[in-house]
Amino acid sequence: METTGAPNDGLLQHPWRPVAIDGCQLLAKSCFGETRYHILLTDLHCVWEETMHSAAIQSRAQELNKRLQAPVKAFFSHLCEVVRPCLSGSRQPPEGEANISVMRLDGGNLSLRLKSKLAGLPLHWEFRCTPAPVTVVCLHLVQPLLSMSHTLQQEVEQLEGLLVSKDAEIQDYKENGATLSRARLQTEIFERHTYRGSFLAKTLAVVCSDHHSVKNFGVDLQELYTAVVAHGSMRKRKLSEQDELVTTVVDATTSSDADRGEADSEQNQTSPVAEAGDHIVRTATTQQLATCGLAERAPSKAKKKKAVGLFR
Amino acid sequence: METTGAPNDGLLQHPWRPVAIDGCQLLAKSCFGETRYHILLTDLHCVWEETMHSAAIQSRAQELNKRLQAPVKAFFSHLCEVVRPCLSGSRQPPEGEANISVMRLDGGNLSLRLKSKLAGLPLHWEFRCTPAPVTVVCLHLVQPLLSMSHTLQQEVEQLEGLLVSKDAEIQDYKENGATLSRARLQTEIFERHTYRGSFLAKTLAVVCSDHHSVKNFGVDLQELYTAVVAHGSMRKRKLSEQDELVTTVVDATTSSDADRGEADSEQNQTSPVAEAGDHIVRTATTQQLATCGLAERAPSKAKKKKAVGLFR
To answer: Does residue B233 lie in a domain region?
Structure first.
């Protein structure tokens, strides 16, 4: 659910990657099409984005490069070549070939200014990123990060269980008189609570010394992120197919109810007075369902019919 | 760093708790003082907040309860009693005692409307929550969730290592002819990659069937959240103390440099022309340092002096 009308350009499926641009540590996500792009950046204190399409790119290219003659496609192809590796964290542009500076502007905007060369002439570009809407931050960061934390917490619990089983096996060998040929192989009995306390005390001191470090989004977490959003998207597609199916069924049921002219129609009768003050309540109720999101996705048939009725 | 001027009321240290209000699944955080409160709510698609202090509470209480005579303190004390348990997920208000409805309003706002009774008279309250700034979402969700994911990923790796050690111990017993008295205690050899693939395939299907479920923020994650933000805050306090120390040292150094009238002063000399176009660059450079946040917190002495110079 791209709630903000953000382009459905597959950016969600891209992992965040730690990048260092102009000495700034950022997490970046970008998606470059033929003559369009969508980028997201965060320093973990704010999140910025910019989406640009062909005409806007052409106009800004002209604004920043008065003498530019190249068609937007050639210009954009060069831009991609220089910028894409930087934003994917794979490499910095070679010294002299291109220079990118990062500037935080008044109003909370973030500007990435590129100076490069195209056919021997200086070429300028500017990514004018604005703070992303909270819905975008939720979609691209909060939701996946919570699912990742939950998944990892489950994995920790399962691995702890496996360790307890290994200890039971070891204990049985020992009770039957087995001994180790190499004493260094002896492990301590795993005790969940003692272990966790000591692990957290040690690890949090290190993790939190880099508390806001974008580097914490390492390769393992990038892979998990991709897996989580891929599963989430699959789930959404399935739900959306189910919704279509339910709506079709409900529509058919509503029509046949109407034909029978039964009790339901009474619920839709309103006095003019009630009707006047009713709009906000209706809006609120419908939007309330929207707020509840997935939790409300499987209402009873009666509930669903009522919700549909609000729009009639 | 409460970058938005949000009240430093300790809300960061509170864990998020899954709550169900009026059928809506939300994560909530709240902090109630004597006659003030600060609440944060999210359905994982948006994040809302409201901060209210004594005078504003009094004025809204009067607006919503024309006949109210009670002093703000008595009113607020009753409000806390009813609302606090709901927002901490500990219990719903008993049927008939109070009713809270959740409404998503135009403009993306979220309203929680309370109907209760005080001294036998109906009592109304409304939490008028607005979408939280992205910086607040980063502070209360993105930063801690990333640190939590990173910590849990480390824990997974460490537990995997322990399992490999257990297997080495078991293997040694076996090679020395040990046998199990109870065959059911036998475990499979732990193979990191096979295990992870199969774990993720199974778990993500379940986690992502509840992809946006606030219930994923379970008790274990709440505890980890609290530990992570507590360590983060400790770290910030230490850094802030260090910063004060560095600033004092730098101030002293700058003064003595100025007394000696050395080369540094040349760098601050600007022609009138250069000065005119210089403001935006200066602003950008200073703000750039701010953007880079903690990554830039330990600059060389020379760098620090330059940054300080920009404000003089």
So the answer is: yes
